[in-house]
Amino acid sequence: MADTPTTDEMTIETHGRGEALALAGTICDLYEAVFSLPPFDGDAAEFANQRSYFPKLAERPGFRLTTARSGPEFIGFGYGYPLPADTRWWSTLADPVDEEFAAETGTRTFALIDYGVLPEWRGAGVGRRIHDELLSASGTERATLSVQPKAVRTREIYRRWGWRKVSHKLMDPPIPAPVFEILVLEKMPRTS
Length: 192
Hints:
The protein is of the alpha+beta class. 30% of the residues lie in helices and 27% in strands.
């Protein structure tokens, strides 16, 4: 059995728009490597969609990308942006949230859009370091994300890290999944 890599061998970096766009090909390749595996089993249409929307997301105010590298090799990523005041994020949920909860200012809630770690690096703390760095640097009060119900292990990890389900969303079209659970983290991590 191969040795499990350690986070001592890892570099965590957070990037703004320009650097993120320069890394777009690498991040999209990592996305495909992560989400082509079970339980996600992504297909060519999903990967083409992600390659299309990544540069558009990078243009949003407050967009941040956090990466993990082992030497020159990228091994994990997470990215997102603060929800704008006019967001529809909360308005299309199957179980509505109250108006106060859904009120956004542009700095209240960071939406973690995509996040993943290569399989050989899972269990070594890489995902947690990316998560904490990305969210602590966001400057927001709380965070939200969506997760597929079939991603049981992923949902359990989020629960252990303090995320809670607030609703779910039916996807139309149902790509990459017909339903996503909407989670919120109200106690943001702090890194030094």
